[in-house]
Design goal:
This is MOB kinase activator 3C. This protein is mainly α. The protein is 53% helix and 2% strand. The chain has a two-stranded antiparallel ribbon with strand order 1-2. Helix 2 packs across helix 4 and helix 4 runs antiparallel to helix 8. It is globular and about 50 Å long.
């Protein structure tokens, strides 16, 4: 029997501190609404739909931050199984290899181990979601024109964490009793990116069989 989420995932092992929404803000209210829908047992395809009257950018922002927190928690918990020795290349099986580029330290796509890639990824996302020019939190401050483009890049890279975990570490997830929770998180993520066409379909190829199971 799968354990509850708090038992399965040790919050001390998250790669980064959780990004929280400020109480009283619209983003916080949207987050509560999204979480309430999740807990209500509604169909995940319905849960991801934009609520009437809400801003699509706010809705996307809330989910990007939430997915960052949840995927960070999943990877942080099983990171002891993902080492320089076990995963010298950030990959998804033999066919897919992911190289890191961030326009600062790594200006060209660079081959990294999976743990290095994950560390760079979480640092990079944390920097973006804490940047007020990209993820504004003050009332009346608009989102930048490239906001959804930035979110597509974030979500595309977060998807690669699922690819690596499913293909290389799913036995560990099963042994931890976390399979159901990881599957639910993935389904939620998958339906969300499909609802708003946020990831190129070619990026989904490594988990095509899993995607087909989600419908």
């Amino acid at each position: 029997m799968a354990l509850c989420l708090k038992q399965v995932f040790n919050k001390d092992k998250t790669f980064r501190p959780r990004k929280k929404f400020e109480p009283g803000t619209q983003r916080f209210e949207l987050y509560k609404k999204a979480q309430a829908s999740l807990k209500s047992g509604l169909d995940l395809k319905a849960v991801v739909q934009l609520p009437p009257g809400e801003s699509i950018n706010d809705w996307i922002a809330v989910h990007v931050v939430d997915f960052f927190n949840r995927i960070n928690l999943i990877y942080g918990t099983m990171s002891e199984y993902c080492t320089e020795k076990s995963c010298p290349i950030m990959s998804g099986g033999l066919k897919y290899e992911y190289r890191w580029q961030d326009d600062s330290k790594y200006k060209k796509p660079t081959k990294l181990s999976a743990p290095q890639y994950m560390c760079m990824l979480m640092d990079w996302i944390e920097m973006l979601i804490n940047n007020e020019d990209i993820f504004p939190t003050r009332i009346g401050v608009p989102f930048p024109k490239q906001f959804q483009q930035v979110c597509t890049k974030i979500l595309t890279r977060l998807f690669r964490v699922f690819v690596h975990v499913y293909i290389h570490h799913f036995d560990s997830i099963i042994n931890m009793g976390a399979e159901a929770h990881v599957n639910t998180c993935y389904k939620h993520f998958y339906y969300f990116i499909r609802e708003f066409s946020l990831i190129d379909h070619r990026e989904l190829e490594p988990l095509k069989q899993v995607c087909h199971k989600q419908g």
